[in-house]
Design brief:
324 residues; Deoxyribonuclease I, Chain A; six-stranded mixed sheet; 7 helices; globular
Length: 324
Amino acid sequence: MPTQYHFVFWNLENLFDIEGSPRRDDKVARAIGSNIKGWTQALLDRKIGQLSSIIRKMNNNHGPDLFGFCEVENRYVVDLLVQSLAPLGRNYQVVHHDSPDKRGIDIAFIYDGNLFEVPEPLADNVFSHFVLRRTATRDILQVTFRTKAGRELIVMGNHWPSRSGGEAASDAYRAMAGETLAYFHQRALEVRGDAMPVIAMGDFNDEPFNTSVVDYALGLRLAALVARGRNPYFLNLMWPLMGKGLGTLYYNGPNLLDQFLVNKNWLQPTSTFKIKTDSVSIVKFPEVMTKKGEPIPFGGMGKPVNQNGFSDHFPVEVIVTEAD
């Protein structure tokens, strides 16, 4: 019987270290300025507790097997999050990289060390791909994971440039991010072999139909085109959710910004790793939603704090299977 894994991605909404933290360099401190004012250890602990309460409920109260997330400032807050998940009794391990983002926010992965490992040497299996622009921006974090059966897959965590300043004015930056993802997807296949399964997950700050995702990242709607295509296409797994009034972030209505994309090596009849396509969903436990069905932000970083909130994004989840 195939082994089943539960993958999740969540934008954790400004999970920052405390005001005056000695772990924050001067450059980041200047960039975030007074927004960090009043962000105490008590508020950070409350935020961690709120997030953890939801993560622990995922996967039928077992927690994710592999959890990608973004908008975390440093390894310290990631470790606090892992510690808060201790009641699950899982052997959670961390992959984190400090990005050059001017506000210091990063991407990270938590994974169950009883199910996966990151092969040594790490320098050959963990990569930070910078998205080039005039001002420092978040990277794309690429990690090779190996299952206990000895099979490998590549996971690419994304947090593309935001729409601040307007969607049109920032389009070019997300196009750069999409091209960067496509380039390193192709490089991974060249270096690791054309049969390597690759899954990209993250907050793309664009919809599945936007140019940055379709034309630059090569994230398509139709599995047949991806499976037959010569280019390093991805299948965007979120398309079945489109047109249903669903979103992972709400701004002038629902926006489906958090997504999973897989390459053709998940789609063949003989593929070792496969996606349960009907398992792709937005995680919406009742306590994380307003009466209108929108996520309840925790706030902070210059915004009002709601200590009963969680994040301004909903998580997304998918079930992956590995053949016997």
